[in-house]
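Dear Dr. H.,

I hope your travels went smoothly. While you were away I took the liberty of generating a structure for the chain from your last submission, since the lab meeting agenda had it listed for discussion. I wanted you to have the full record in hand beforehand rather than looking at slides cold. The sequence, exactly as received, is reproduced here:
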Amino acid sequence: MSAPHNDHSRSTGSRSWFPHARADLSASLVVFLVAVPLSLGIAVASGAPILAGLVAAVVGAIVAGLLGGSPLQVSGPAAGLTVVVAEMINRFGWQVTCLITAGAGLIQIVFGLTRLARFAQAIPPSVVHGMLGGIGLTIALAQLNVVFGGQSQTAALDSLTALPGSIAGLAWPTLLVGALVIAVMLTWPKLPARARVVPGALVAVALATVVALAFPEVPRIELGGSLLDAIALPVLPEGNWAGVIGGMLTIALIASVESLLSAVAVERMKPGTRTDADRELLGQGAANTVSGLVGGLPITGVIVRSSANVRAGAQTRASAVLHGVWIAVFAILLVGVVEMIPMAGLAGLLVVVGLQLVKPADIRTARNHGELAIYVVTVLGVLMLNLLEGVALGLVLAGVLLLVKAVRSRPHFDGADGENADGPMVLRVEGSLSFLAVPRLSRQLGEIPAGRDVRIDLVTDYLDHAAYDHLQAWTERHRSTGATVEVLEPETTTRTTSNSLDGTPRFASWSHWQATGAEGRTAESPMLAGLAAYHERTAEEIRPTMSELASGQSPSAMMVTCADSRVMPHMITHSGPGDVFTVQNVGNLAGGQGTMAAVEYATGVLGVPLIAVCGHSGCGAMNGLSQGVAGQDGGLGHWLIKARGALRAWEQGHPVGVAAAADGFPRSTSSRW
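The corresponding predicted structure, in token form, is as follows:
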């Protein structure tokens, strides 16, 4: 009897050490297949030794995977740094660039120790997205030359200049291989989910390798040894330490921002995941320090690999670490396989990866927030100048626009000319009323006829002394013409979590409106009373959010829950407009034509990564199910037939039913299954 007991103990201990072994192992293999071709391609685009991409992939996976603050994020060489690294290699050579990478890692460690992660998050998203868009276009233009049989260039303008010559000297076999990869990468996301189990990048590069066997003249990857041969120590520069330190700061800042943005995206893809931003910078810094010391590329958190990790079902950081182990084994034992890959295949892969950094969703978001100019200026700056100057231009423009918004005042008359049949003219002043706004305010005040009564509504967040002085002087002059002038400001009552401006509960039900006795809020029209309250208190506050969502929705989750009037999905998930795609039906059944149509739309069209089915205790539908209503005449009886399987599972001791009973929910109310 003791042997079985010991076996069980070992099994339990194994599960406690590696509780999600199957899910993490499976996910690590998927990420490995995604990471290998991307790491090789990024090394090619950077002008670094090709094996440096695999070195960075291994170090990023293991070091950042173990030490980072985002448990499901996968780190490695990223497309967002290729332009910077290529410039560093051109200026200082490869081994000094390794020193710059290690130094950038030390700076990131300082960022993490001094808790500077919150400041990195303050950079305007339009600048970050514009930077990535400019980098993506630079990569795509450079690798397009390779697809046509030419040479890759570092700067975007140089790539554009070289493109006509590459087209004129077109090499058809090279174009065929590169075009094949581009075609596969573009069509792969449109295939059924079952076909997309294998990563598109791996399929594209594998097909290109097979096709290239018929064309010996197509250039292949030249590694010059295995992964162990690629390990190289950095060297000190012979001069220009200012440029070296500037490169360290540049890589540290870009890698930190990109890693934190990727971590935020992972949180949205898998609700419940939490990132320790400062620890993430410490982990990224340690990974970059090690990568630079052993001859690897700079490392960041990579959204492509991280999203593949989440979608493949990873549960812990073990998945990211294991995928690095598989890369190391591959790069040491299968060097010959890597050297069969055609350069044009990697170039085609990078063209698509680069273009994917220019995201229509980012452009729409920038436009909806009035920051499209910042995005465009940043992109053009990166393309025409360089990355640092492009980002600097975007930040300067963002500051200028912020200053304009801060000092802008919007005085206007209510109605066409402020005329009010029942009272005085009404001049409404919105925004910040400072000395810079006095000329416009003076012009509006000058349009009011002498002797005409007027009311001035100051809906402002700032009023400086110069504007106040001007308004007071005009008021005195206008009153001397026999007119009345009334200057009103809104009350400054502070809202709390539970109470609104008038002291009523923030989440009051219709029964509250019935009890108030206010005009229009009678017991005969509770829905109209709630509607009136919405327009009175909420509509204006939520209008900016709804305007942003007007161009489309991108919810982070779908919830199927009960139609019971006491179930409030958005309240219990603390979500708002655009966050959750919701379906409510009697009994929260995940079945039926209507619900399945909603599931199909949510997953196929909206790309929702998470579907939750939420029940509640005391459900009338479940009580009816347990009492035999299913199958009886009427719509409810036919509907509950779909729940008979769940009832049988509960009766057979399903773990969730057992847990509900253990928590004190009797059979008639334990509908949490």
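Two observations you may find useful: The chain has 30 helices and nine strands. The chain has a mean pLDDT of 79.

With kind regards,
E. W.
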